[in-house]
User: Fold this.
Amino acid sequence: MTAGPHRSPGADLDRTVGRLLTIGTNAAVLLLAIGCVLMFAYRLDPLAGGPPLEPGLIIDDITHLQPAGFIWLGLLVLLATPVMRVVVSLRGFIIGRERTMSIVAALILVVIALSIVLGRAES
Amino acid sequence: MLVGLWLITGGAAAGLFGSLLGLGGGVLIVPLLTLVFNLPLLTAVGVSLVCVIVTSGASAGVFLERHVANLRLGMTLELFTATGALLGGLVAFLLPEKALEILFSGLLIYTSITMLRRGRAAGGPEEETVVDEEVPGEDQFFDASLSGPTYRVKRVPAGALGSVGAGVVSALLGIGGGIVKVPVMHLVMGVPLRVATATSNLMMGITASAGAIIYLSRGLIDPFVTAPTALGVFVGASIGSRVAHRIDVRILRALFVAILLYTAFQMLLRAFS
Assistant:
C-alpha cells in the first residue's frame, strides 16, 4: 500500500513519458525556429499580426516555405505534446492495471476535450 | 526583423531569469509584451501560455527521466489545475482588461513577497518530510499510491482545491501557476520542495495547454509574436538550467524583485490611465 510512485509494471513509464516530452518539445521548437528564420528572411513584421490558424493550409504553406506553416505546425505539436503525455500515461496505467490512475488520466483528456469544445462554442 | 530579434531577446531574458529563480517566466513575458511591445493583455496571455508549455516540456522530461517529478501526484493534481484553467480561460474573456491588469499587478507584488521570503529561507537544509505512521481516516488510496519513497503525501483534497486555484490564475494571467502549486504541495501536502518544484513544472504543460486551447480558439495566439518569444524562452531556460548551479542568485533575486515591483507599478499605471 505504501509503494512509491515510480513503480510501473512492464515498462518504465516515467522514462517513456519524459522522452516523449523532450522529443515533442524539441521538434516543436525546431519548427518554430525554421518559421522565425523564414519570417526574418521575408522581412515580415511580427507585430503586424500573423495569419490565423487554418489547418488545411499548413502543409501547403510548408511546401511553399511560408513561415506561417512551420510556426502553426510547431505550435500544434507543442500543444499536443502534453496531451500525448497523458495519452501515453493512460496506456501505461491501463497496462499496469492502475484503475484509479487510469480514470484520472481519462478525466484529464475529457477536460482538454471540453476546452476545445467550449473554446470554439464561445468564439 | 529587429522587432523579431527583440522578441527573441526578451523571451530569452524571461526564460533565463525564470529558470535561475525557479519561475515559469510567464510573470515576465506578459508585462514584456504589454508594456514594451504594447500588445493587448489577452494576446500577451495567450503567447505566455505557449511559452509556459515550452518551459515545462523542456525541463519536465528531464525531471521525469531522473525520477525527481512525481508523475502520479502530478497527474492527479493536474486534473484539477486543467479544470481551473478551463474556467479561467472562459472567465478571462468576460473580465475587462483593466481588471486583468490590476489582478496581474497583484500577482507581481505577491511574487515579489514570495521571492523575498524564499531568499531569507535560502541556505538552510531542505525540509524533507519523512514517512510517518498511518493516520486513521485519511484517504487510503491517494495518500499511499501518490507518496514517494521518502515522503508521504497528505491532505490530497486540500491540494486539489489549491490546484483549481492555480489553474484559474494560470489561464487568467498566462503564468505556469508554480507560485501557487509549489507552496500547496510543499507546505500543505508534505511533498519535499525539490519534488514539488519538479512536479509543478510537469503539471504546467497540461494546465497551460487547457488554457492555450481556449485562447487559440478565440484567435488570440498570434503566430508571429509567439514563435520568436517562445524560441527565446527555450534558449534562455536551457542556458539557465545549465548555469544555475554556478550562479549566486541572491543579487539576481534582489534585482528580480525590484523589476517585478517596478513592473507592477507600470501595470497599475496602465490600468488606471
